[in-house]
Amino acid sequence: MGVQRVSARLATAVLAVAVGGGLGAVVLSPGAAGAATRTVSATPMTAVVVTRAAAASCSTGKYQKQVEGYLKKIGGYGTVSVDGKQSTKDCAAIKKFQTRFGIKPAAGLAGPTTYGVAKRLAETKTSKCNAKKSGYTFCVDLTHQTTWVMKNGKVYAKPTVTRTGMKGYRTPSGTFKINKRAKKEWSDPYDVWLPYWQRFVGGRGFHQTTTYIHDAWRGSHGCVNLLPADAQKYYKIGKIGMTVKVIGRRSGT
């Protein structure tokens, strides 16, 4: 491969990826009107050119510092600096968090949805479920709109997001038992399939969401809506007779 010149005035960065060993040289030299250019010797290698915008960290969101703090408290999404300044590591951690909880777009911007989800998860207290000391307990926190699974009194599946009954269709609090399961259940009242269905009280149960779970104005008709990956996990864990504990109350219901 020959020599490529990329103008810095086009705000591009050159990334060299070695092929078969050996590193090419990157040289800065004056260009037209004093602008610097990069000369990349790509023998014996392949040069990959990406825009500086793509390589740089993503934009700083309105809730940058708050999200950083919540992600640090929750843990598991990478290193974050709680300083309100976006960095490459912060961006990667936020993107990972957004991807995990189905927040769109997963672009690393600490916007209101990301802030709200992170806050709910960080403020969830798993001990309030008062789970059984033996066996499994499925926990639902209506106040924070979160859910998790306990095993032998300890957290087995970490808190994740849910969406429960809206006004007029409130999900009741209390202690229940899973009494019906089906990989796909048809809802007669609402003419829709409910994937990974696990009923626990009346016509209410866990199932995969059929709409975007983060639409704040939405609510279920009393069921506990789950993200696809969580619905599958809950279905794999669940069995008839397992305990479901629902605590708190959703705001506005």
Would you mind describing this structure in some detail?
The structure is a single chain. By secondary structure, this protein is of the alpha+beta class. Helix content is 20%, strand content 34%. It contains 5 helices and 14 strands. Strand 10 and strand 11 form a beta hairpin. The N terminus is likely disordered.
Please write out the topology.
Elements: E1 3-7, E2 12-18, E3 26-30, E4 36-41, E5 45-51, H1 52-55, H2 64-74, H3 88-100, H4 112-123, E6 136-141, E7 146-151, E8 154-161, E9 174-177, E10 180-187, E11 192-201, E12 204-208, E13 224-226, H5 228-237, E14 243-247
Parallel strand pairs: 6-14, 12-13
Antiparallel strand pairs: 1-4, 2-5, 3-4, 6-7, 7-8, 9-14, 10-11, 11-12
Features:
alpha+beta; 253 residues; 20% helix; L,D-transpeptidase catalytic domain-like; 14 strands; globular; 5-stranded mixed beta sheet; disordered N terminus
Q: Please state the overall shape, judged from the principal axes of the Cα atoms.
A: globular
**Strand tally, please?**
14
Task: Look at the structure and give the CATH class of the largest domain.
Answer: Mainly Beta
Helix count, DSSP H or I runs of 4 or more residues? 5
Count of distinct structural domains = 3
Overall CATH architecture of the largest domain: Beta Barrel
Q: How would you spell out the order of helices and strands?
A: EEEEEHHHHEEEEEEEEHE
Residues in β-strands, percent:
25-35%
How would you summarize this macromolecular structure in one to three sentences?
By secondary structure, the protein is of the alpha+beta class. It has helices at residues 52-55, 64-74, 88-100, 112-123, 228-237; strands at residues 3-7, 12-18, 26-30, 36-41, 45-51, 136-141, 146-151, 154-161, 174-177, 180-187, 192-201, 204-208, 224-226, 243-247. The chain has three domains: 3-55, no CATH class; 64-122; 127-247, Beta Barrel (L,D-transpeptidase catalytic domain-like).
